[in-house]
From TrEMBL:
Protein name: DsbA family oxidoreductase
Originating species: Pseudoalteromonas fuliginea
DSBA-like thioredoxin domain boundaries: 6-207
UniProt superkingdom: Bacteria
Coiled-coil residue windows: none
Lineage: Bacteria, Pseudomonadati, Pseudomonadota, Gammaproteobacteria, Alteromonadales
Amino acid sequence: MKNFKIDIVSDVMCPWCVVGYKNLETALEQLKDEMSADITWHPFELNPDMPIEGQDLNEHLMQKYNLSEEQGDENRKNMFEAGKRAGFTFNFDGKRIMINSFDLHRLLMWAREEGKQTELKLAFFEAHFTDLKYLNQEEALLDVVEKVGLDKETARGILHSDKYVQDVRQEQDNFKQMGISSVPTFIINDKYALTGGQPSDSFIQALKQISEEEAKQDA
């Protein structure tokens, strides 16, 4: 059984990050008799200068990417369909906001130590994109933490301290120095990188190819 080390550089605010992960998950399920993976999530901030109150998402995207209303509608339609194919629901019916995700990354670093990082990451994705929770509001954020079985008051203590601040910044700097400037980026066995919301077939092909290459190197 081949076991991969997969590091995912990602932001909770990035819809393609959840699409890509769900497709990776499907690929690993289809390959479960041949291979497995240890997955670690790493921080990336799409909008590090975003104020704590956040910004209306449609307004933000139109400003950042100079999109027309029609282009915005088309993007949402494409995103909804990509999510549906991946098994994830994007909700475009209510008011959505873009927030600064730094505190989410601090909690995800703690969750890594607690063995619940992927669970918390997926819960954040669902809260933000499906349930339209405002994760810049402390109680909403802590409810998600509690939902995956992590201690709410420990999480509150982290939010009110500088714990994991330097750790998150250090990891962000490390990946920037490696040349990573977009998310999601999937780094496999510290050597191979896939970017974007790849379909599951692309992950299957890549994992099989890497497995074959490494088998030759080990021979």
